């Protein structure tokens, strides 16, 4: 197989879906996703994987490598979300009557996060991250000057494995698939697409 060189260039369609969890009689957790809705305009999504390894020694030699997997952390640089969206992901309160964002004691919820990453070859990479919480909402207010500077907002999204054991692959953190004609992506963002829902494209 010939080696292909590829790079990312572009990102769009940053969306969220609220995740609710219900404990069943058998102790399993049923996960239900809400309506898919836009988060905000997106400038950047950068991800960082938390993994660790440690070598154990026996008989004066390295014998076993123990590895562990932690959370994945995504930094989102976005345009200013609506106050209603901010209240939702920040866990605060939105007053429908006045349109005000109110800094009540935070009650954070889980969300799925979706976006499309563009590549230089013209293909798009479709992504769903299944379970995470938002922190941050960092912002800066600068005085106007004779330049063109403006500021946006930054959030951190911390992702862990889903509680659902999907039929095909068990517990998952994310789904990432290229728009290369193999998978049917026509309804990918209509709802949260899980590994069990993703189907081969019929030609």
Pick out its properties.
about 200 residues, mainly beta, nine-stranded antiparallel beta sheet, two-stranded antiparallel sheet, 1 helix, 11 strands, about 5% helix
Question: How is this structure best described in words?
Answer:
With 203 residues, this protein is mostly beta strands. It has one domain. Helix content is 4%, strand content 50%. It starts with 7 loop residues before the first strand and ends in a 25-residue tail after the last strand.
SS class: mainly beta
Biggest pleated sheet: 9 strands, antiparallel
**How far apart are the termini?**
24 Å
- The outline comes out as globular
User: What are the low-pLDDT stretches, counting only 5+ consecutive residues below 50?
Assistant: none
Pattern of helices and strands: EEEEEHEEEEEE
How much of the polypeptide forms β-strand, as a percent range? over 45%
Secondary structure: number of strands? 11
Oligomer: single chain
Averaged pLDDT: 93
Alpha plus pi helix count: 1
| Proportion of helical residues | under 10%
Number of domains: 1
The Rg value, from CA coordinates, equals: 20 Å
């Amino acid at each position: 197989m010939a080696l292909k060189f590829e790079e990312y260039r572009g990102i769009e369609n940053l969306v969220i879906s609220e995740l609710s969890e219900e404990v069943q009689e058998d102790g399993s957790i049923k996960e239900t996703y809400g309506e898919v809705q836009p988060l905000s305009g997106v400038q950047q999504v950068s991800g960082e994987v938390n993994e660790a390894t440690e070598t154990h020694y026996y008989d004066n030699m390295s014998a076993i490598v123990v590895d562990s997997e932690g959370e994945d952390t995504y930094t989102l640089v976005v345009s200013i979300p609506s106050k209603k969206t901010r209240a939702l992901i920040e866990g605060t309160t939105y007053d429908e009557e006045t349109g005000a964002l109110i800094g009540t004691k935070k009650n954070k919820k889980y969300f799925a996060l979706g976006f499309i990453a563009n590549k230089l070859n013209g293909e798009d990479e479709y992504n769903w991250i299944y379970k995470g919480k938002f922190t941050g909402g960092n912002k800066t207010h600068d005085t106007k000057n004779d330049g063109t500077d403006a500021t946006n907002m930054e959030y951190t999204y911390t992702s862990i494995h889903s509680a659902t054991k999907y039929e095909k692959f068990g517990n998952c953190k994310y789904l990432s698939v290229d728009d290369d004609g193999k998978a049917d992506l026509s309804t990918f963002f209509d709802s949260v697409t899980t590994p069990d829902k993703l189907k081969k494209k019929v030609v």
